[in-house]
Amino acid sequence: MKVTQGSQAATSMIILWASGVISGIIDNIPYTATMAPMLVEIEKTMGATYAYPLWWALSLGACLGGNMTIIGAAANVIVSENAAKSGHPISFMRFLKYGVGVVAITLTISTVYIYFRFLH
Question: Residue 1: inside a domain, yes or no?
């Protein structure tokens, strides 16, 4: 909260984009499970109205960020394994090449959505 000086908009955007990037590096489920208690504490301190868009930011960031890499989500691992078994392997770097673009676009859309839905 010190970083954003209590700004709901700034806190939401940091959570959204940080969640998106981190969830591309580690699986999104453990990341979300780790972050949820922090948001509960913010909610206790700042109130439910303040925290509501933060929950959306965490949800969207973690879910969409998992599309960045093969290891970002369990579904990506399964698809990669099935593609390899059928003779069409997908390398980590090839997946990353497309994943970064997809995540950048979807997080940008999420930024606009969160701003106009909750912060405007």
Answer: no
